[in-house]
Design brief:
The chain is of the alpha/beta class and about 350 residues long. The protein has helices at about 10-20, 25-30, 40-50, 55-65, 80-85, 85-100, 115-125, 140-150, 175-190, 205-220, 235-245, 260-270, 290, 305-320; strands spanning about 70-75, 105-110, 130-135, 155, 170-175, 195-200, 225-230, 250-255, 280-285, 300, 340, 345. Strand 8 (about 250-255), helix 12 and strand 9 (about 280-285) form a beta-alpha-beta unit. The protein is elongated.
């Protein structure tokens, strides 16, 4: 409980006086410095609480050379961000981990190439300590713009594009290719032989890796049949209609994300086809708000979307502390320079 209700705003000097320490000692505690004995640090923190002292952010930035803010950059237009629950889950994980590190999230959208210079200028202007970016595209333009700002950055998903040396770019991704392979292997194991794929955008590495996993599993097992989507439910519905027009006897489909799988289910229902008796359907992501709500419930590949967001923050904080040059994952809890998380097939009623 603070005792200040009205009057002048408490100063660092008044905190030091209340705690019985020097101003320099009070400043070190307030600004997260080291070298202050535990008992003295506790007195300073108690004085801060009692007086209701609020640190001056500008002054703290001058002392620590840190803003306490992290930019989160999403390489998609706003309508995609608000319509796809993937983004909400990723940002939720990022925000929870940033909160645990007492850092503020600053959200930036890269809706198109015209935004790249603006974002680079903002990052380079000293407004944030680092950047997290996801939903990248294979032209590499957004990755290059972020790197040009020379701020520590971690990317969600495997970077690609001109000059993108994956090993040199800190990133967190899931095993997209292995997860897709497991999905198609499952369809083969339950006796399906005319297995189609609704692919994601050709300019995103996650979609390309899932397409590669589909081909891996199908090799020697049957004819590849692919229709293009863009990770939206509407594109999944269109792609399913296209597949049925080309191959009416298709008996299974693996969609590169859950939203496109819901679109495929809608088209199959409209055509009078039963899932899974006529056509088995598997998605990718395992977002409860989608997979549990479909009819029938969706068999899908689970990636830990929220956990990947938290890993991005942990990796960035490691870099900011000067420990981000890779190394043994088991050494003192350090993460390697980049992380690939496992996926799991979750079997429900659709396949």
């Amino acid at each position: 409980m603070t005792e200040r209700t009205t009057g002048p705003r408490p100063t660092l000097e008044s905190v030091a006086a209340r705690a019985g320490v020097s101003r320099a000692t009070a400043s070190r505690v307030v600004n997260g410095g080291t070298g202050v004995r535990g008992a003295l640090a506790d007195k300073v923190r108690q004085a801060v609480e009692e007086l209701g002292y609020i640190p001056n952010h500008a002054a703290r930035t001058l002392v620590t050379r840190r803003t306490g803010a992290i930019a989160v950059i999403i390489g998609e237009p706003g309508f995609r961000v608000f319509s796809d629950p993937f983004f909400e889950r990723q940002v939720r994980g990022i925000n929870r981990e940033l909160t645990a590190h007492d850092a503020q999230l600053v959200l930036l959208w890269a809706e198109g190439p015209g935004d790249h210079d603006r974002i680079a200028r903002y990052l380079g202007g000293g407004h944030v300590d680092g950047a997290l970016a996801f939903s990248l595209h294979t032209d590499g333009a957004l990755t290059s713009a972020i790197q040009s700002a020379r701020v520590p950055a971690v990317f969600g998903g495997r970077p690609d594009g001109p000059g993108a040396a994956v090993a040199d770019v800190p990133h967190v991704d899931c095993d997209n290719r292995g997860g897709a392979r497991e999905a198609v292997d499952h369809l083969i194991a339950i006796g399906r032989r005319r297995i189609a794929h609704i692919a994601g955008p050709r300019d995103q590495t996650s979609a390309l890796d899932r397409l590669a996993g589909y081909h891996d599993a199908l090799a020697g097992e049957g004819e590849a049949l692919v229709s293009q989507g863009d990770f939206t439910a509407e594109s999944g519905a269109r792609a399913m209609a296209d597949l049925l027009s080309r191959r009416p006897d298709v008996d299974a489909v693996f969609a590169a994300n859950d939203l496109m799988a819901t679109g495929a289910l809608r088209t199959l229902r409209e055509r009078g086809l039963t899932v899974p008796a006529d056509v088995a359907v598997v998605g990718f992501d395992d977002m409860p708000s989608v997979a549990d709500a479909t009819d029938p419930p969706l068999t899908t590949v689970r990636q830990d979307i929220e956990g990947m967001g938290r890993l991005m923050v942990r990796l960035l904080m490691q870099i900011l502390k000067g420990d981000g040059d890779g190394g043994d994952e088991g050494a003192a809890g350090r993460l390697p320079a980049s992380v690939v998380t496992p996926t799991t097939l979750v079997r429900r009623a659709s396949a």
